[in-house]
Amino acid sequence: MTKRGGGDKELQAVQQLPKTFSLDNPGDGLHGSWKSEKGKCTIGKDPVTARLSYTEPVGEERVHGWLDPVSGEESLWHGTLVLLKAGEGPWYGPSFGPPPEVVGDINVRLLKGDKPGMETQIRMQDEEEWSELTKFELEEGAEEKPMPKPDLSNLLPMEERSESRET
Question: What ranges does the record give for the region Disordered, renumbered to this chain (predicted)?
Fold first, then answer.
């Protein structure tokens, strides 16, 4: 029989917090609505997972990606992109069904300077080369709003619970 908490073994959590979790996370500088000559995108903290999330409208659909910091690089994040249909929320894991099809990868770099800026580079799934850098600036007059909470009711239907129960 072994003792709990005894020995030199480090206890492992079932689910780890992101290693970049801090109150002064450099990813916070990416939060906002961004515009470029090619279009617009939004970067913010996902309300369900608190992960950095990239969203770009494409017609009635939108491109979505989770952004993770690139080890050994300053102010650089990488993500895998998927195409989501209108009204469809991000994929949070196997309990949400099969994962959406990956359509590409993205690199996002926060630019330092007097005026907030960032640049993106995308590689589509069937291409070998990365696109040219696209420079973005924060939209004038666009308020930093929290990411909209996804409607999970169609994925996780809950039965209405009555306030009174018979015993």
Answer: 1-38, 123-167
CA 10 to chain CA centroid, nearest Å: 30
Structural domain spans, the chain: 26-132
C-alpha span between 64 and 103 (Å, rounded): 10
DSSP secondary structure letters along 67-94: EEEPTT-SSEEEEEEEEE-TTPPPP-SG
Are the C-beta atoms of residues 129 and 123 closer than 8 Å to each other? yes
pLDDT of residue 141: 65
**Residue 120 contacts residue 111 (beta carbons within 8 Å):** no
pLDDT digits over 153-166, tens only? Answer: 555 544 544 444 44
Q: Cβ(66)–Cβ(78) under 8 Å?
A: no
State the Cα angle at 62 between 60 and 67, rounded to 5°. Answer: 175
